[in-house]
Amino acid sequence: MRILLAHDYLTQFGGAERVTLAILDGMPEARLVTSAYNQRDTFPGFLDHDIEVLKFAGQRLVRADVRLGLPLLARAFSAYPVRDADVVVCSSSGWSHHIRAAVPKIVYCHNPPRWLYQSKDYLADQKIHVRAVHAVMQGGLRRRDVRAAGAATKYLANSHSVAVRLKAAYNIDAEVLHPPVHLDASGPMAPIPEIKPGYFLVVARPRGYKHTQVVIDAAESIGERLVVVGAEVRTHGPGVESLGRVSDATLRWLYRNAVATVGASYEDFGLTPLESNLFGTPVIALRAGGYLETVVEGKTGLFFGSPSKDEISLAMRQVRSMQFSLQVLREHADSFSSGDFVSRLRAIAQEFANTAHVPRTKL
């Protein structure tokens, strides 16, 4: 089976990129195409695979900051000539599902494009002229996006929350296939000597909708130490360590030595609770979105009702007084295995690879 895997862009350390890497590791015969690839800005595991990068005007903008080139990506993917493939698998939270193919096209959707359907959250930290440009272009981009979704043979959603969004955006009934935990718990650990165990941990990309600043405010209000990974925080007190990007070895050590990991955003799925559980660490999470599918209240973590300083600080106090079973935490994380995920995805690809492709709509 000749598989073409299309992913939006490899310019960040995100959950969608970990899932794409899991697909490549589980389906080594697949070849990958993407709109931009920065080796230093995403997971080193991609170095083990052949990656084809689209050629299009404005690629430098995408490599610098993907939000600057969003309007260009639909056309870039739709212009790509699909050859030597029995089936196309799109790993998409953006434009990769716009790829045109005469063979069956399966879309594994992390979320419908956030800048089109949840633009208030996505553009929250952008300047007013950026928001204005997106507002002007949004109508046309949405219409094109709906047509591209309708040309798919099958849609898979990474969570029930995303399945609901797909129904609202595209009127598509998607099968739910939870993504795997792809961080190896047995891998090496790299301690940070100046950080002592017993802190709270945030692992989040630098986006306003991740609500990292609210978590900082909550920790500082009760004198708790906090370590922030991913998002670079410029203003904070002495109890907060902002590390930016870290290696997987450092991330393993940080998960292992935290009191709890905190997730305060409306996640599509949210892999960080499962990664945290893998190392025996519970989670404090917003009672919404994908966290409802990855956190078992009282067993693998606690929920809070809204991304507010008071609710998060109360949950921090509560979790310190609780006992969690190391075995339960790890077994819960292990239930989201790469093997099960890849087996189901491969079965779906095989099912459609031998059938004629009849898209619901024309691009």
List its traits.
single chain, 363 residues, alpha/beta, Rossmann fold, 14 helices
SSE topology:
Blueprint: E1 3-7, H1 15-26, E2 31-34, E3 51-53, H2 59-64, H3 70-78, E4 87-92, E5 105-109, H4 114-117, H5 119-122, H6 128-150, E6 154-157, H7 160-170, E7 175-176, E8 199-204, H8 212-221, E9 226-230, E10 240-244, H9 248-256, E11 258-263, H10 272-278, E12 283-286, H11 291-294, E13 301-304, H12 309-320, H13 326-334, H14 338-353
Describe the 3D structure.
There is one protein chain. The chain is of the alpha/beta class and 363 residues long. It has 2 domains: 3-180 and 338-353, Rossmann fold (3-Layer(aba) Sandwich), CATH 3.40.50; 199-334, Rossmann fold (3-Layer(aba) Sandwich). The chain has 14 helices and 13 strands. It has helices at 15-26, 59-64, 70-78, 114-117, 119-122, 128-150, 160-170, 212-221, 248-256, 272-278, 291-294, 309-320, 326-334, 338-353, and strands spanning 3-7, 31-34, 51-53, 87-92, 105-109, 154-157, 175-176, 199-204, 226-230, 240-244, 258-263, 283-286, 301-304. Strands 3-2-1-4-5-6-7 form a 7-stranded parallel beta sheet. Helix 1 links the parallel strand 1 and strand 2. Helix 8 (212-221) packs across helix 12 (309-320). It is globular and about 60 Å long. The two termini are 25 Å apart. The mean pLDDT is 89.
